[in-house]
Amino acid sequence: QVQLVESGGGLVQAGGSLRLSCAASGNIFSINTMAWYRQAPGKQRELVALITRGGSTSYADSVKGRFTISRENAKKPVSLQMSSLKPEDTAVYYCNAKILAGTVYDYWGQGTQVTVSS
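Given the sequence above, the corresponding structure tokens read:
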């Protein structure tokens, strides 16, 4: 089992920055990937950024060059640094952890609201 707690959401003007953090507890050394997803009203949840245990990262095209996912080690929180924010970045952001052990075990945080005003 893995527990995830997000923090750092809020209201920001377009062009501003926010930093989200996700603290994991429980079976953290079995986590293969950690990621941030987001879900805007009326839309499907989408992958924003992902980081593997080895430190490889990937991003949605819509956030490349503006968002950075990072993690120092398995014991440290995963951060999502968001810059040059746009109103279309407004969504609830969810932290996700995946454990690959014959099947995929998905764990989710409770979500944190990010609102970007124009």
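Residues 83 and 114 are 12 Å apart (CA to CA). Try to locate this feature in the token string yourself.
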